């Protein structure tokens, strides 16, 4: 996943051995940093948080075979990635995809979606300094491969193992409805 343009030429990737690798171009030289043991059984996805006027830091969400979503923040002083709070737990099997919502949608509240082997798509919204609230969008009854936000963050597309793509929109009070 490429970082937001405000952070420069930076890309991050998830590896089968559980590492997250971040590669950055600093003045023509490519520099690599690694988050070791991000997901001990294997990492499956990575997404960069959008940059906002009030939150201009390097922040990642990752997911993996340990059934969790984890958040990471880059410490500029120590030049290392640190886990940002506890792992987000809501899936009962591998989490295949994690995706930050664009900051233009759903309000300025940090928000991300995760899709899992357990057939669930969960939307996570940060309700306090470190507290995350989860809402299940739908239980698909089949593994879900990918969740992806529209450019304004108002519609979530979902691809499942039955080769079905559906669109979902939050209508009120955390209730999600399929877009016909």
Describe this structure in words.
The chain is mainly beta and 180 residues long. Helix content is 0%, strand content 53%. The protein contains no helices and 16 strands. The strands form four sheets. Strands 4, 5, 6, 7 and 8 form a five-stranded antiparallel β-sheet that branches. The model has no long low-confidence stretch (mean pLDDT 93).
Provide a concise account of the structure shown.
The protein is mainly beta and 180 residues long. The chain contains no helices and 16 strands.
Which descriptors would you attach to this protein?
five-stranded antiparallel sheet, 180 residues, globular, four-stranded antiparallel sheet, 53% strand, mainly beta
Element-level helix/strand string: EEEEEEEEEEEEEEEE
Overall morphology: globular
The total count of strands amounts to: 16
Number of separate helices: 0
| CA(first)-CA(last) distance | 29 Å
Rounded radius of gyration (Å): 16 Å
Largest sheet: 5 strands, antiparallel
How helical, in percent, are the residues?
under 10%
Strand content is over 45%
């Amino acid at each position: 996943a490429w970082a937001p343009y405000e952070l420069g030429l930076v890309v991050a990737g998830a590896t089968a051995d559980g590492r997250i690798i971040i590669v950055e171009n600093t003045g023509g030289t490519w520099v690599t940093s690694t988050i070791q043991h991000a997901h001990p059984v294997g990492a499956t996805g990575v997404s960069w948080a959008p940059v906002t006027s009030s939150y201009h830091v390097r922040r990642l969400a990752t997911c993996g075979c340990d059934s969790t979503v984890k958040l990471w923040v880059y410490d500029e002083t120590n030049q290392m990635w640190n886990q940002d709070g506890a792992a987000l737990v809501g899936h009962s099997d591998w989490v295949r995809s994690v995706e930050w919502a664009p900051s233009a949608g759903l309000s300025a509240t940090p928000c991300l979606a995760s899709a899992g082997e357990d057939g669930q798509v969960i939307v996570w919204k940060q309700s306090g300094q470190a507290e995350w609230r989860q809402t299940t969008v739908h239980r698909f009854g089949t593994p879900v491969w990918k969740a992806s936000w529209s450019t304004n963050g108002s519609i979530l597309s979902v691809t499942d193992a039955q080769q079905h793509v559906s669109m979902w929109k939050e209508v009120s009070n955390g209730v999600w409805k399929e877009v016909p």
